[in-house]
From TrEMBL:
Lineage: Bacteria, Bacillati, Actinomycetota, Actinomycetes, Micrococcales
InterPro entries: HAD-like_sf, HAD-SF_hydro_IA, HAD_sf, S-2-haloacid_dehalogenase
Organism (species): Cryobacterium luteum
Protein name as catalogued: Haloacid dehalogenase
A GO molecular-function annotation: hydrolase activity
Pfam families, A to Z: Hydrolase (PF00702)
Gene3D superfamilies in the cross-refs: 1.10.150.750, HAD superfamily/HAD-like
Length: 241
């Protein structure tokens, strides 16, 4: 298998291209430390992670800002810390402000020379529009949780992706999935029969942060520590042809 064997790349966005942990921690970290100054951002992210995934699974039609708000409230209950309505709403509305990773825009521009770029993201349409702008509007096709009606790792998301990706000229067996989250992306991608690239953003940080630890079988075809490193490998592969 070679990186030149594909016509399209499907992307997770939050965690892979947009730094969702920084965005969530910017709200949850100061909140937790009001109750206990010893709490680190990493501890809060880990505490939060199971609740977001649970809300997404239980309420697949709930828009992402409302998922964030409800997961925040659930985290507060679990920790015994009070979450005000304004705080919950603030997290839900913060997605548009979450920063892109420093290498995302350039890497996407380089990858676009070789592939169709497709989004498969656990987000609502309005929030994604802001992130799309931060990333330079590089995508040929977009599937959000709002348009699909469910959240990854629900297999429906990958089924919809595979059913419709042909509209941008990606042939059967010619799609490669690119993501950070093993739980949300690599496990269901494998079940769907997709090869994948692991952008291991947390390679130098122990634990799983805002992503639940996976118990499913995972076998990415490639692993890189950044989007820049992935784009370098792609350029080298196409240049050697």
């Amino acid at each position: 298998m070679n990186l030149t064997d594909f016509d399209g790349l499907s992307f997770d966005v939050y965690g892979t291209l947009i730094d969702w942990e920084a965005g969530i921690a910017a709200v949850l970290g100061p909140w937790a430390r009001r109750f206990d100054a010893s709490w680190t951002d990493e501890q809060v992210l880990v505490a939060y992670s199971v609740h977001e995934a649970a809300v997404e699974a239980e309420k697949p039609g709930l828009l992402y800002p409302l998922v964030l708000a409800e997961a925040f409230r659930c985290t507060g209950v679990a920790l015994g810390f009070v979450v005000g309505d304004e705080e919950a709403t603030a997290l839900g509305s913060s997605v548009a402000e979450w920063p892109a990773f420093a290498d995302s825009v350039d890497a996407l521009a380089r990858l676009k020379k070789h592939y169709r770029l497709i989004v498969l993201s656990n987000v609502d349409d309005e929030s994604f529009a802001a992130s799309d702008g931060r990333l330079g509007h590089p995508f040929d096709l977009v599937f959000t949780a709002e348009t699909v009606g469910s959240y990854k790792p629900n297999p429906r998301n990958f089924a919809v992706l595979l059913e419709r990706v042909g509209v941008v000229g990606v042939g059967e067996g010619r799609l490669l999935h690119v993501a950070q989250s093993l739980f949300h992306d690599h496990v269901p991608a494998r079940v769907a029969g997709l090869s994948s690239v692991w952008i291991n953003r947390r390679h130098d940080v122990p634990g799983w942060g805002a992503t639940p630890e996976t118990t499913g079988e995972v076998s990415p075809a490639w692993e890189f520590t950044s989007m820049a490193a992935f784009a370098d490998a792609v350029d080298a592969a196409w240049g050697s042809r």
